[in-house]
Structures are given as structure tokens and as C-alpha cells.
Amino acid sequence: MLIRPATIQDAPDIARLATALGYASSTEDIVSRLDGLLGQPDRFVAVADGKGEGLLGWIAAERRLLLESGEKAEIVGLIVGTDSHRKGVGSALVTAVEDWARARGLGKIVVRSNEARLASHPFYEHQGFKRTKTQHVYLKPLT
């Protein structure tokens, strides 16, 4: 397995992994999103390349500056294929974000995990994250 920066060519596998986790995305959707993210200094997208097995997982993070709490890195997406669970893929991807954040002088990383994703909670705790709050997320479509 090789952890490397994502490329536009990874779009089909990123879409496959996202869709498998319930985030229906076409290759075209992912190409468009990657086009807006790749090359941005405050954005990070990396993949776990299975070297012939396709992508095993991906992670996305961003640098955030919040008025009330300052600057930090936030993991905004992490998906590991079900066949690759408990094989070190997620840990390697989180380490890549930690390295990226440290290189930018960021002193903390936050991640949000859906209450329904029960397996992810012990994973993040094992990575050294501490649960700090539970919250509700509201969505308002703008039509």
C-alpha cells in the first residue's frame, strides 16, 4: 500500500468507495470536486493505493480558521473499503493528515463522526482523538 496525493485519475475509485459508504457520487461528480480541491494549499486529499488492487481508501482534510477557537486541521472525509478494514489503511491515512497539518504549523486536528458510524468511534479514539461534544447537524437546501 502506498499513501499518496490524490489525482483526477483516482476519481472512479473515490466515487466507488464513497458510494459504497452511502454517499452516492458519480465519477463526474468526483472529478468536478477534485478539480476544485487539488492544488489548494489549505486542502489535502490523499489515497491509499493498493498497487494493482485499486484504491483501498481516501482521506480529505482542510485547514480551518474559526473566529471562536482559532486555527486547526479538520478531517472532512475518510473512507476505507470494507475489505481493507482493520489492516492499517485508515491509520496510515490519518498519519498522512497529521504530517500535512504539522508541516503547516497546525497544533490540532478535529474530526466529526456520524453517531450512526459505530465502528468509527473506537477507531478515532485509538488514533488518539478524544470525544469533546455531541451535536446536531442541520441542512437547509437553497433552491
Polypeptide structure, described:
This protein has 143 residues and is an alpha+beta fold. It has one domain (2-126): Aminopeptidase (3-Layer(aba) Sandwich), CATH 3.40.630. It has helices at 11-20, 27-37, 89-103, 120-126, and strands at 2-5, 43-49, 55-66, 70-80, 109-111. Strand 2 and strand 3 form a beta hairpin. Helix 1 (11-20) packs across helix 2. Keywords: Acyltransferase, Transferase. It comes from Marinobacter halodurans.
How helix-rich are the residues, as a percent range? 25-40%
How far apart, in Å, are the first and last alpha carbons?
43 Å
Rounded mean pLDDT score: 94
**Number of β-strand runs:** 5
Q: How many structural domains in the coordinates? A: 1
Could you describe the largest sheet, including whether it forms a barrel? 5 strands, mixed
Q: Give, in order, the helices and strands.
A: EHHEEEHEH
State the low-pLDDT regions, or none: none
Rg for CA atoms = 15 Å
CATH evolutionary superfamily: Gcn5-related N-acetyltransferase (GNAT)
Strand content: 25-35%
Give the overall shape: globular
What's the architecture in CATH terms? 3-Layer(aba) Sandwich
CATH class identity? Alpha Beta
Query: Would you give the CATH topology?
Result: Aminopeptidase
Number of helices: 4
Alpha-beta content class: alpha+beta
